[in-house]
Amino acid sequence: MKTTLAQxxxxxxxxxxDGAWNRSPFAALLQSIAAKHTTGxxxxxxxRTLEGAPAGVQALSPADCDQVDWSRTTAVALHPxxxxxxxxxxxxxxxxxxxxxxxxxxSDEHLNKWRDRLGGEASFVLTPSESYYLDLSxxxxxxxxxxxxxxxxxxxxxQALMWAADGTDPLPxxxxxxxxxxxxxxxxxxxxxxSAALSFYRSVYLYLLGxxxxxxxxxxxxxxxxxxxxxxQALARVYRFRSAIQTALGLTAEAAMTYETTAITExxxxxxxxxxxxxEAGQADIAAAMLLRWNDDHRGATARLERMLQTExxxxxxxxxQESTAVIQEMLIDSLxxxxxxxxxxxxxxxxxxxxxxxxxxxxxxxxTACLYEGRRLQAVRAFLRAAELRxxxxxxxxxxxxxxxxxxxxxxxxxxxx
Amino acid sequence: xxxxxxxxxxKLTVMxxxxxxxxxxxEAALAxxxxxxxxIVVVDDASTDGTPELCRSFPKVVRLVELRRPMFxxxxxxxxxxxxTAVSTEPDWLLAIDADEFLERRAGRQLRELIxxxxxxxxxxxxxxxxxxxxxxxxxxxWNLHRRHTMMLVRYLPGFHYAxxxxxxxxxxxxxxxxxxxxxxxxxxxKHYGWAGSPEERAAKYERYKAMDPDxxxxxxxxxESILDPAPNLVRWLEEE
Amino acid sequence: xxxxSILTHSYIDGYNRKFNRLFGGGLxxxxxxxxSVIHAAGWRPVVHQLSYFEAxxxxxxxxxxxxYTYELGKTASAxxxxxxxxEGLLVYASCLWHPIRYRPGSIGICHGIxxxxxxxxxxxxxxxxxxxxxxxxxLDRVVSVDSHFQTYARAVCEFDDADRIALIPxxxxxxxxxxxxxxxxxxxxxxxxxxxxxxxxxxxPRRLSYERGVITMMLAADELLAEHPDIVVEFAGELVEGxxxxxxxxxxxxxxxDGSRIExxxxxxxxxxxxxxxxxxxxxxxxxxxxxxxxxxxxxxxxLPVVATNVGGLNDLVTDRLNGLLVxxxxxxxxxxxxxxxxxxxxxxxxxxxxxxxAISFDVDRWRARWTAVLEAQLAANxxx
Lengths: 419, 241, 385
Known about the structure:
The structure holds three protein chains of three kinds. By secondary structure, chain B is an alpha/beta fold. Helix content of chain B is 25%, strand content 23%. Chain B contains six helices and ten strands; from the N terminus they run βαβαβαββαββββααβ. In chain B, α2 links the parallel β2 and β3 (61-66). The longest helix of chain B is centred in the last third of the chain and has 14 residues, at 199-212. Chain B is globular. Chain C is of the alpha/beta class. Chain C folds into two domains: 3-171 and 364-381, 3-Layer(aba) Sandwich (Rossmann fold); 200-360, Glycogen Phosphorylase B (Rossmann fold, 3-Layer(aba) Sandwich). In chain C, the strands form three sheets. Chain C has an eight-stranded mixed sheet, sandwiched between helices. A six-stranded parallel sheet of chain C has the order 13-12-11-14-15-16, with helices on both faces. In chain C, a hairpin with a 4-residue loop joins β2 (12-13) and β3 (18-22). Chain C is globular. The interface between A and B is medium-sized, with 22 and 17 residues.
């Protein structure tokens, strides 16, 4: 395809950095992208940050970003503080390369929160940490891991970036990577003889892939091995996951029984009691959503809850129907928030005029964040002020924004948040 | 949907595997257990001395499985069979006890209180090996089971994953996955009379172990040898009130 | 010469080690004015204060000031230690919410209630109540700067002497804080400049902090600035850098489309009256913690119509629609009150006029006379006169 000079020079993918190119944990991947695609790099200090980068990489200042046609450009963020800058521009695809859970939190209390937020709003996420990868896979689709554990698995991650640089949503590749990783675990277990950890991980992958029956077998194996190994947390940390698997198999009553078996704390017992009541009232679908949520499967839960709302008649029905609709709505909002999908949560709340908002302060904070994502800064500030008027601590949201503004400037100067 | 854990009205079922116990302590055991429990389930491992008939004579024995061929060489199968049979009677709690084991009086009195609660799912007691008499137990290097706890009571939770290790000998009497559930270790005691008989009987047992497990795959050779120790350390038993 | 010893946790700037000047807060101003009253009566004031760093002894405006070191968190025992060294009549000028063992025959001062917010823990409030019960029991007199503490003390403490609490509201120097030259307040008189063309100025004369209502005011300002292209909102107070409030304010100011009509400036004590002179309306949007507001008195003394919230001592000063507008502490109510004043010039004039008269009854000379009387009575009671 012939391209004009202008098109050839226009970057198809622009990277929003965290420190220098050659110090990034994603340098190798970026290198491969830059070899095939015209790549931009947002910085005020190219001398500082592009050392060691391929020659074709174009430096852009944050101001230059206003001239970019984002509907035809993919953005790749290496740091979550770029979120308020990036989201309002609506790039055709937004990839987030997340360095992993909690490592760099250090003294920055806001970092993890924004990592979860961008993790929820990005088109896809890439991370070198398997535990973060799995954690996020329970909240959303389109997550990739690049941890060097397996060549083919890493190749899928690279392909994801390549597709995205081309403007194609890499979503279908995520499942392929999961399949490859599950197979890799199977191979490892065959050659090394297996262990509680390997079985557990394999079970998680099988669950994500939708093979609940096999996932259950593997999980029970993991459970046996962990008990034999003397793991005192085997019941909560391993066995309880069976309740999610059983829910996926459609065995809600059994799943509730499993959950109840593992219920030790007062909160867990109260949860088990709730499950029992819902099942007795014939509300197995609500119980199923609860079970998924208590197993942190917010991805699965939101899918179910959205389906339930589509089929439930909202306006008709008596008090019981209204109560169950309210419960479903509440769970959906909470799961969306747990998945970092703030815009969606906010949109839903706008759709439900009769929804009772328990905490107005939290609601205003949510609205404010959604406004921020849309680039409506003044409205965001106003919402945060309204939140602060209700509760003094909420004033922290404004400090946080000031903090992120300052941090974004530093990132543009080539500084890294990783000390 | 019933609660998984009941704090009152729990049905207590005894599960016991037997092999040629008639003439030893079986009758006394079944009599006492009939007082303490609601039901009794027995698996008879191909006895040749009329043990099954003795069991059947106790009305609380609600299930009796009589094996034609002995299974003790593949103990995990035997354990699993006993377990499956016991849970098929829909028990609330199970007491896994042998034909030559007796709860101390105090333990018998506290049984109901131990199981009528919803906080823990198993109870372990201290097991004492009586040696050569019904008055003294052995306490030395190889014989100190009482310094640890032995799980004997479990709540049956339908749907829970119960599993036995696939060993041929020395398989625990209860599924090992029970250990993951919350449990209680008590100072209550059980008396094991298996070694309380004559030196000849003990010598015979020694021979059986050596034949079964000559290389010490399933148990310790040194422990087998210590059976013949001529001067074991014995301690007098004091029944608590 | 009779000695009157004033015990306080702060006077000379011990926080910044500036031993030749006072820390710039209301308490320190109050003590300075009190020392002036004592001097004028021919008595000798001595100030005993806690020192953040080392002990010191100095003189300020003819008053001996002694600084004591103390252990952080042990305020009560620090005051007890100071009392041991102090001569004459003791005036405990701060920290009455601490469980101090007071010397008999002494006076205490309460500068207002600052725990009047729903979010403050009940346990804290109970502790404060217990401390005040002790104070009312042991002190001969407690001077209250507003009627709210008086009511609180009567409702919470036991005491048999109706005169135990003396209400001496804060004051204002009505000769210094004057309305615009005769011929009208800030909004009238000068026909060469029609009021329509000049922007109306809404003044918020407080340090910018949460309890003083900066958040509520920002929200109210948002509404008003959008509706009225002819107004300016001035936040005349200190903005402490690095605080949450400072960050919030700057963020708001910077992204505001009407940012040019939002001003923020810290005035010195001497310049403050100029701020009032240039303003058309004063707003005291306190959320909690307010004794007799000096800012409110100053604004009223300058003939400015005030919008005040019904918190603490503000209720002592403003009677709704008589000498000001009194509203609950939320942004909607404050905005509505300001809106009304912006549109109603005669109302502004009336409130401003009566505000000035109110201020006169709080004139500093009355305050000085009341304090002199209280001190004299106590000296007599102690046999020290």
